[in-house]
């Protein structure tokens, strides 16, 4: 049976994907780049470095790219984080997993300070033992670096851990780490986009409701 759970946060434990997209749109607009929300929204879930390249053709390591990323963080804090809410059943799921004696680790493309705020909103900040953020990896999702860092902190082998995520970037990163993944629709992606997951549920609450028949009780090979 699984001994550790690697948790994505945005879209998985907090309903923040739209808010992140709007913050990017606003920051890009301030720089004179009118990038529509519809173009940015499907990129949420990958790291900001990859998003800047995909949405605006910008190198995240350039002076302009770094300034835009910093401005996006400020806009998110000032305009949007106050409206972010937990996904349905987020705190209940994390509590349930702790009660099942799972080792819990976060693998998020968010930076460390922002990640703490999001975990606080999710009601999970005191329940998660380990966290790997953008500060702990040279390459963001869908590259596996952040998931590998989180897995290492659990002290478990890949076959003893499972990930929870909400985007195809989570699915790819988990697969490239050798970790199975359970996907949630609450991030806004379709089942087709989440193909390759061990199972797909609407949100954390549905996973709790169906826990006895989930991969936690019936593990499947990666």
Write the element-wise H/E pattern from the N-terminal end onward. EHHHHHEHEHEHEEH
Quote the distance from N terminus to C terminus: 13 Å
Sketch the major β-sheet.
Answer: 6 strands, parallel
Overall CATH class of the largest domain: Alpha Beta
Helix content: 40-55%
The gyration radius over C-alpha positions equals: 16 Å
The CATH architecture of the largest domain can be given as 3-Layer(aba) Sandwich
Low-confidence stretches: none
Shape: globular
Number of separate domains:
2
Average pLDDT score: 94
- What amount of the residues lies in strands? 5-15%
Give the strand order, joined by hyphens, for the main sheet: 3-2-1-4-5-6
Structural class: alpha/beta
Number of beta strands: 6
What's this entry about, in short?
With 222 residues, the chain is α/β, with parallel strands linked by helices.
3D architecture notes:
The protein folds into two domains: 4-15 and 85-213, HAD superfamily/HAD-like (Rossmann fold), CATH 3.40.50.1000; 17-83, DNA polymerase, domain 1 (Orthogonal Bundle). It has nine helices and six strands; from the N terminus they run E-H-H-H-H-H-E-H-E-H-E-H-E-E-H. The protein has helices at residues 17-30, 37-40, 48-56, 63-80, 90-99, 112-122, 145-154, 168-177, 204-209, and strands spanning 4-7, 103-107, 130-132, 161-165, 180-184, 199-201. Helix 8 (168-177) links the parallel strand 4 and strand 5 (180-184). The model has no long low-confidence stretch (mean pLDDT 94).
């Amino acid at each position: 049976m699984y001994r550790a759970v690697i948790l994505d946060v945005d879209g998985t434990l907090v309903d923040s994907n739209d808010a992140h997209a709007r913050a990017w749109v606003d920051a890009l607009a301030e720089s004179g780049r009118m990038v529509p929300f519809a173009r940015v929204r499907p990129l949420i879930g990958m790291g900001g470095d990859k998003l800047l390249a995909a949405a605006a053709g910008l190198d995240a390591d350039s002076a302009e790219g770094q300034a835009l990323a910093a401005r996006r963080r400020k806009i998110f804090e000032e305009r949007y984080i106050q409206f972010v809410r937990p996904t349905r059943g987020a705190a209940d799921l994390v509590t349930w997993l702790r009660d099942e004696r799972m080792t819990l680790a976060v693998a998020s493309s968010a930076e460390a300070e922002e990640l703490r705020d999001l975990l606080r909103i999710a009601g999970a900040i005191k329940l998660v033992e380990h966290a790997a953020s953008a500060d702990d990896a040279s390459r963001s999702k869908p590259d596996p670096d952040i998931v590998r860092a989180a897995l290492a902190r659990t002290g478990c082998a890949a076959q003893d851990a499972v990930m929870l995520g909400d985007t195809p970037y989570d699915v790819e990163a988990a697969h490239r780490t050798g970790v199975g993944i359970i996907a949630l629709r609450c991030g806004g992606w379709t089942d087709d986009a989440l193909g390759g997951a061990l199972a797909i549920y609407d949100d954390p609450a549905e996973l709790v409701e169906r826990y006895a028949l989930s991969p936690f009780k019936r593990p499947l090979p990666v």
